[in-house]
Amino acid sequence: MxxxxxxxxxxxxxxxxxxxxxxxxxxxxxxxxxxxxxxDSQKRLQEAFDYKKSQLxxxxxxxxxxxxxxxxxxxxxxxxxxxxxxxxxxxS
Length: 92
Description:
2 helices; mainly alpha
């Protein structure tokens, strides 16, 4: 569309009546183009938002799973450390 705009300017003046009519038609065509582009962009943005929103439960579940796994690992680590300390006490 920007290239067409440049071509329009380069074409020059074609007389008052003709120029105004052509300009009106060209302006309307540009509006249709930009409105369509804006609507398409908003539609794609909404689709991306909806997809990401639909993934929230999956992400939350994964976060909880990882947190639980890490808690189990920490608990296991603490258990091992405790057992090592306990064995050292029994040996001394």
